Amino acid sequence: MSLDTSRARAAILGRIRSAQGRGGAITDVERAQVDAYLAKPPRAPRPTVGDDVVVHFEAQAQRMSATTERVATLADAPAAVARYLAAHGLPTQAVCWPALGGLDWGGAGLSVRAGPPTGDDRVGITGAFAAVAETGTLVLASGPETHASTHLLPETHVAIVERGRVVAHYEDAFARARAELGVLPRAFNLVSGPSRTADIEQTLVLGAHGPYRVHVLVVEQPAP
Predict the structure, then answer these.
(1) Confidence of residue 119 (pLDDT cuts 50, 70, 90)
(2) Which among 210, 184, 215, 219 is positioned nearest to 68, based on CA atoms?
(3) pLDDT tens track for 99-113
(4) Under 8 Å between Cβ of 133 and 190
(5) What is the pTM assigned to this prediction?
(6) S-S: 137 plus which of 46, 64, 132, 183, CB 3.0-4.6 Å?
(7) What is the pLDDT of residues 195-216, one digit of tens each?
(8) How far is CA 176 from CA 19, 35, 57, 80, 181, in A?
(9) Quick one: DSSP state of residue 163?
(10) How many angstroms separate the CA atoms of 8 and 30, rounded?
(11) CA angle in degrees (0–180, nearest 5) for 78-81-87
């Protein structure tokens, strides 16, 4: 932020404080009030999810035209991905996040490259920071090892999420991000099924601005 911008910002905030009848400097009491609010913000009404957040997540994801499958462990993911690709007549070549590169893709008959997509990759495989049951939405945090392009560029997006990362509501996902990440990433991408648009004559078209397909693997047991 430049010096001129900082001065302009300070002047605007100063006028606001003056209109509110406050002094020029922020007091310790005001800082404490802000800290208390951020530590425990008020809870808005939230939709009912039920006791099993994974069941609710799966139902909502399917309602958004995604497909879901459960696997026992992360090691079972390659075989599940291979089954999904074969069932839909999709290529056996894919790109994945680096953290998933060590899985036995070759043993499942797949050729999977770890790293960012090149633009020619038709299948992208990612993890997920969290999954939100209330809307069947995946929460993906951007970063150098979690390329957003992996779930945006390929025609098919396969996401792998641990059961323990399926939360009831958006507020739960954001609270978890603050607790685990400290400094939030530059962007969170929220994925609710395949990309879609109805801009032309209100006709729903999938794959307009991203993947045509989204398949979610829920891993029942956490990684050791």
Answers:
(1) confident
(2) 215
(3) 999 999 999 999 999
(4) no
(5) 0.80
(6) 132
(7) 766 555 665 555 556 688 999 9
(8) 37, 18, 17, 28, 8
(9) G
(10) 22
(11) 140
Asked if 99 contacts 159 with a C-beta cutoff of 8 angstroms, the reply is: no
Provide the β-strand partners of residue 217. 69, 160
Cβ atoms of 150 and 126 closer than 8 Å: yes
Q: State how far the Cα of 176 lies from the Cα of 7, in Å rounded to an integer.
A: 35
| Sequence-ordered list of residues with C-beta below 8 angstroms from that of 67, at least 6 positions apart, any chain | 61, 84, 213, 214, 215, 216
Per residue in 134-150, pLDDT (tens digit) is: 999 999 999 999 999 99
**What percentage of the chain exceeds 90 in pLDDT?**
63
Radius of gyration of the CA atoms of the chain, in A: 22
Quick check: helix, strand or coil at residue 152? Answer: helix
Question: What's the 3-state SS for 19-50?
Answer: HCCCCCCCCHHHHHHHHHHHHCCCCCCCCCCC
